[in-house]
């Protein structure tokens, strides 16, 4: 535990969706606004003193994809991917001098996987909605994921995934559709493919922002939203609370 705040890092160009995501992280982690500061990485680069000011980082999701051809990536996407790698590297090499931690979600797990030399591909997408997640034996003994049920429901919506856990990482959670659902690198970097932060209502509100972005047929919105709202996603938020207790001002 530390007195320094955590930082929510936004990598969504859509500011409305980003605002909703920040609030989901804040509520899920049981943090006050002063305990979870916001940085819009789409519009502002990572400050040089960021690792001195914050004890840890929550990296949200994004419509960007690591597997987007480099020729199609905007300068903003290329710059923010570099900044996310800086956050990951700081958490991996954390020391007593700079003891930061990081929690990457969805798009962010792809950034970390690629940074570690792993393969991210379009072969492991998951539909928008609830999926079943299983902890590995290492996940069951992990200080954070080990607080969850062995099998639980989480929400996903992504077009890419990793085929295998990258070198240097420990696989913590998996399922049949996308085998790398969560991993840890060292003691202070966590990454999940699923979204741990939203309630089902918040997720459907975010779905409305991305209705026409190819995550699901736009005409099926009501059907998909109904499936989301019927799900029970009580376990994933506990992971964020555990992270905040371990590394944040709680």
Which CATH-level-2 architecture? 3-Layer(aba) Sandwich
Tell me the β content.
Answer: 15-25%
* The CATH top-level class label: Alpha Beta
| Separation, N- and C-terminal Cα atoms | 6 Å
Residues in helix, %: 25-40%
Shape: globular
- Strand count: 11
Assembly type of the shown chains?
Answer: single chain
Average pLDDT figure: 96
Kindly report the name of the CATH homologous superfamily: Class I glutamine amidotransferase (GATase) domain
Low-pLDDT segments: none
Backbone CA Rg: 17 Å
- The computed structural class is alpha/beta
Task: Find the CATH topology.
Answer: Rossmann fold
Q: What is the topology, as strand order, of the major beta sheet?
A: 2-1-3-4-11-10-9-6-7
Order of helical and strand elements = EHEHEHEHEEHEEEEEHHH
Characterize this entry briefly.
This protein has a single domain (6-247), classed as Rossmann fold (3-Layer(aba) Sandwich). Strands 2-1-3-4-11-10-9-6-7 form a 9-stranded mixed sheet, sandwiched between helices. The protein has a two-stranded antiparallel ribbon with strand order 5-8.
Please provide a written account of the structure:
By secondary structure, this protein is α/β, with parallel strands linked by helices. It has one domain (6-247): Rossmann fold (3-Layer(aba) Sandwich). 32% of the residues lie in helices and 22% in strands. It contains eight helices and eleven strands. Strands 2-1-3-4-11-10-9-6-7 form a nine-stranded mixed β-sheet, with helices on both faces. A two-stranded antiparallel ribbon has the order 5-8. Helix 3 (75-92) packs across helix 4 and helix 6 runs antiparallel to helix 7.
